[in-house]
Structure formats: C-alpha cells, structure tokens
Amino acid sequence: MTEPTQSKPTQSKPIRPRERDAIVAALRAGVVPRTGQQHVQVGRVAEVQAVLHDIERIADGGSSSRFVIGEYGSGKTFFLHLARSIALEKRLVTMHADLAPDRRLQATSGRARALYAELTRNLATRSRPDGGAMGAVVERFVTQALGQARAEGSDPASVIATRLETLTESTGGYDFAHVVGRYWHGHDGGDDQLKADAVRWLRGEFSTRADARRALGVRTVVDDGNYYDQLKLMSRFVVLAGYDGLLICLDEMVSLYKLSNAQARMANYEQLLRILNDSLQGSAAHLGFLFGGTPEFMLDTRRGLFSYPALASRLAENSFAAPELVDHSGPVLRLASLSPEDLYVLLTKLRHVFAAGDPGRYLVPDEALTRYMEHCARRIGNTYFRTPRETIKGFLDLLALLDQHPELDWRSLIGDVVPVPAPTDTPETDTPETVDLDDELSSFQL
Amino acid sequence: MAETDAVSTLLTGIFAEPEPEPAPPAPLADARFAPGIDPVHGNLLRELATRSSWSEGELAELAARHEVLLEGALDLINEVAIEITGEPVVEVGENGGGQLRVNDEVFREITS
C-alpha cells in the first residue's frame, strides 16, 4: 500500500468485484474486456459523444452508419466494444462480428450467410451481454403478446399475427413472421424441436429450403442474397419485442480490402453502399452500423473504399475541417493513437480498477507510473504509447505481483521487466471469443 | 487529462445506476417491484426466489403457470435489475436449465 502523491480518477465509486476481475483478466490476456470499458476509457470524448448521438437516433427510430477508422493499435476494437456496451445500456440489442475471408458482406457461396450467422450468434441484450440472446428476444416478444392476449381476452396466436403484421409488408417479412408464429406454436404445444428450429431459422442456420419447409413450413431460408433484409426485419422485430433498436458492429473491415479478386471486392463495397444509403436516407428504422477499419481500407484509391467513387464521395471529409477542427457529424470517426499523456491517464485508471475503485488500496504511487513509462520508452522505443496492449499487460502483471507479494518493492520490479521480440503487425485475429486489443509492438515478461 | 475527465463524466452518466425513484402508491399487492417489472413477472420472480435450485421441468411448469416464456421473462426481469443495481437478479448457470440462482441482495434492492 502506498500513500504519497496519487492522482485519482474522477470516478470514485467502488467497482464491483466481478467487473473488476473481468477487466483485469481480459487486459492481462491482451483482449478487450466484454464489460466495464468505461472504467478504462481514455480521452475521445467527442467520439464517444458521436456514437452516443447515433445510439439515441437509432432508439428514436432513425438509422446510422459510422466508420471507425484507426491504425492497428489505435484501439478500434476497444472502441467498438465500448459503443456496444453503451448501446446495451440504452436498451438496444446488439450484434457483432469480424469480417474474414469466409465472412463477407456480399458473396455467392454462403460467406455472407456465414456473417449473418455469426452476427446472430453474438446477438446480445443488456441481460445477456455475452450473446446467444436470440431465443430470449423471441420469448420476450411472445410473452408480451401473451400479456396483451390475456388483457384483451383474445387468442395469443392472433395477437402475435397482428403484432407482426407490419413486418409482412417488407421483403422476407412474411416468412419471418411465420417463423416467430411457429415458435409460439412450439411453445404452446410443448414441441421443443419446433422452437429450436424457429430459432435456428432466425439465426440463418438452415442451409436448404427443403429442410426449412419440412421443419417450419416456410419457402425461404436466410441466404447470401437476403441476409441484409433479415437484419432490417430483425431491427424492427426487436422493437416489437420491447427493445429500442439494433446496433450492428462489424470489425476487421480490412478483410474486404484484402480480397484479391477485384470483382468480389467491388461487390462487397456495393453492398456497403446499399447499407450506407439506407442509413443516410433513414430507410432502415431503428438500425445502426459501426464499421471498424484501418486508414488504408478506407483511403486507398486503388483497393480501398475510395476506389469506389460513390463511397468516396459519401465518406469524404468535410472540406472545411482541419486537424484542430474535426467534424464528428460525418460518417467517419478517425481514432487518433494515444499520446504519452493518454497512456499516463490510462495507467492511473488501471491502478484504480485493480484496486476495485478504492484509492486506499492503490499498490503503487504516481511516481511508479512515470517510471514505468520511462522504462517502456527505453525498452521498446518512443512509440510504445501508440499500441498500448503490451504496456497495459506488463503494468497489470506488475500490479499482480505486488498484490501477491507485498514485501516486494515496485522500484526493483520495474527494472526486471524484460521485453521479448515483437510478434507481427498482422491485423487482429478474428476468433469470436477473444478479441485482440491491438497488435504490433514487443511483449513484456516479468 | 481534461478530455479524459470529460469522457469519464459522460460515461459515468451513461452507466450510472440511477437512484431508485419513490415507488408509486400500489393499489395491488403485487405492485411492490421496481417499475418495469409488471405483476406477472413480479410474481414469477417472487416464486423463483423461494428455492435455491430448479429442475428444467419445474421451471417450465413454473413459467407456464405464470403464463410467460421463461427466457424472455428472465431477460426482462434482469434488464430491470441491471438498470437499478448493475447486476442481474436471476443468474443463469453455464448449462441453463435448472441452474438458476436468485441473487438475494439484488432481489431485496429491486423490491420496495
């Protein structure tokens, strides 16, 4: 325990043990925490405000699309997770997925359906922030309908049909409504298989029409060609179920830029344009998108979004903007890399989280933070603060040791931090369970 | 630093757990749960809280008796609990099914 000069983060409320453990464990493993990002967010108030504004617009019945653009290591993935947490807090349903060679916005061999399936697997509500909430959303809709049927003394099946009527006017809406109705029939008749099939259909897990017809009596399945219509239906369905809208986060957009086949790339950009147009025209009610990508993915005029003139004109920066005069109302949010000052503040926040929000339990004084930063600069070079994953990890490792061995002195420990060779500068991996904080840089070991 | 203070204030506002509002006068004996939990869900929760574990069949029977679908009902109840206390009131175990547990502390916080 240390008492001298300590700067205190503005929040002084205790952090719940479960949240504290989850944040520390995730950051020590080099991945973005699923919850509690607000405890370690540094700077970027305008960007957070812009996203908050989007979320409020979605809840209001509007639509939005944002491109979160930053270099490897600038914290795009972290920022997208923060946005997702804010959306859940504001009673939106969220979905997220990383684009990958086998998960695309447009494809003909099931790769777009694979993206849809990944999104729906990760469908989350505030009660189920870790995903897998499709069944809960459907059941919440049906439960509401049951309540209404009870109050009116009418038949639940007809209440469900009436409530879904607005969907049936949209593309694919008839089958969507029919499948939700089948879920109710499954429940009513004690047929768990029917319920499971209905959820499987909604999650895009039926691959042949014949199977879907046999199981649910519908003629269509979610496929490469109609998945976007399904997402639009889903955004309206979640509102009917009592939520305020749907936010979809798509990370690793650079995967599209990396498609070597120009035709496939352009087809994906065309799909992106369709989504963007729907947002700009407000024709996708209660639906918002956040896309995470690198500057080259957007700016490269040969292979990036700017190679597609219609996208280039929509995404071009405000011509009056300047470095010190940023327009956050445009569709692009540029994430600047962290500065050394930001990193210092981040370390104070990590110390605060590690102490579960109790300044009395801080394990190191402010002086240790500066010393640790100097150490990182010496060992890794002057740009250590731009890609903070390993710096964060090393710092938390240091705190963990001090926590378990109170007899140790932080001064001697900092000197023992040894850098190991940098891994690679390839993009973040796309495993759904572990999202890389960001890469590049050397690693530390204590 | 100033910007981080600003973002902290902004985020603290978003993730704040609001002070519980004074409960409106309750004409119904059931209406003693926090706003957002209707009598049907309140009764379900009250019964859930009477036992430490439930088999899958018992849960299905319980939900049917209260005329709700269990997963949807828990989603709603937990949403309100998280809004008020930051934590779910009904914790679902890894395997779902009978692994439900009611967090007594949160239960007390959301009942007035």
How would you sum up the global shape of chain B? elongated
Which CATH-level-2 architecture of the domain at 37-112 in chain B?
Answer: Orthogonal Bundle
Q: Kindly identify the CATH topology of the domain at 37-112 in chain B.
A: Arc Repressor Mutant, subunit A
- Please tell me the total number of domains of chain A: 3
CATH class of the largest domain in chain A: Alpha Beta
Would you mind describing this structure in some detail?
The complex is a heterodimer of chains A (446) and B (112). In chain A, helix 5 crosses helix 6, helix 8 (173-188) packs antiparallel against helix 9 and helix 16 (340-354) crosses helix 17 (366-380). Helix content of chain A is 50%, strand content 8%. Chain A folds into three domains: 43-131 and 244-334, 3-Layer(aba) Sandwich (Rossmann fold); 135-216, no CATH class; 340-445, no CATH class. Chain A has a five-stranded parallel beta sheet with strand order 2-3-4-1-5, with helices on both faces. Chain A has a two-stranded antiparallel ribbon with strand order 6-7. By secondary structure, chain A is an alpha/beta fold. Chain B has 112 residues and is mainly alpha-helical. Chain B contains five helices and two strands. Chain B has helices at 2-15, 39-48, 56-65, 70-85, 104-110; strands spanning 90-92, 100-102. Chain B has a two-stranded antiparallel sheet. The longest helix of chain B has 16 residues, at 70-85. Residues 23-31 of chain B have low confidence and may be disordered.
